[in-house]
């Protein structure tokens, strides 16, 4: 009777201090604070603060898109060329969607 033995090794990968999950969480928290400040300023309904509200909301949206763009690239970089092209087309459209309303305002 012979017994089979198998050795398995597990490796763990330690992320850096600013891992993507931690960075995503703190970016979301920062965007939430910016949206909260923008909401409070809009409730005050001061004409002089309207620009500040728009800028805060635009900035919060931009930093959220940055995190989504990084995660999207992590997904698309190992795919075929079509996926990479679609990634850059979608990213360009999102950037235009953020910038054009800021310029038009």
Question: How would you describe this protein?
Answer:
With 105 residues, the chain is mostly helical. The protein has one domain (20-104). Helices cover 72% and strands 0% of the residues. It contains three helices and no strands. α2 packs antiparallel against α3 (81-104). The protein is elongated. The relative contact order is 0.10. The model has no long low-confidence stretch (mean pLDDT 77).
**Poorly predicted parts:** none
- Per the principal axes of the C-alpha atoms, what is the gross shape? elongated
Major beta sheet summary: none
Number of domains: 1
Give me the secondary-structure category: mainly alpha
Number of strands: 0
CA gyration radius, whole angstroms: 22 Å
User: Which sequence of SSEs, written as H and E, runs from N to C?
Assistant: HHH
Intertermini distance: 81 Å
- Total helical segments: 3
Proportion of residues in extended strands: under 5%
Mean pLDDT: 77
Helix content: over 70%
Question: What tags apply to this protein structure?
Answer:
single chain; 105 residues; mainly alpha; 3 helices; 0% strand
Short description:
With 105 residues, the chain is an all-alpha fold. It contains 3 helices and no strands.
Write the layout of secondary structure elements.
Layout: H1 20-44, H2 50-76, H3 81-104
Helix pairs in contact: 1-2, 2-3
């Amino acid at each position: 009777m012979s017994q089979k033995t198998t050795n398995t090794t597990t490796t763990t990968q330690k992320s850096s201090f600013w891992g993507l999950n931690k960075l995503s969480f703190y970016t979301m928290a920062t965007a939430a604070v910016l949206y909260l400040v923008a909401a409070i300023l809009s409730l005050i309904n001061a004409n002089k603060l309207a620009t500040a509200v728009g800028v805060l909301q635009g900035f919060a949206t931009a930093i959220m898109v940055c995190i989504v763009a990084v995660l999207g690239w992590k997904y698309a970089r190992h795919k075929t060329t079509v996926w990479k092209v679609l990634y850059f087309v979608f990213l360009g459209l999102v950037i235009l969607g953020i910038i054009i309303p800021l310029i038009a305002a």
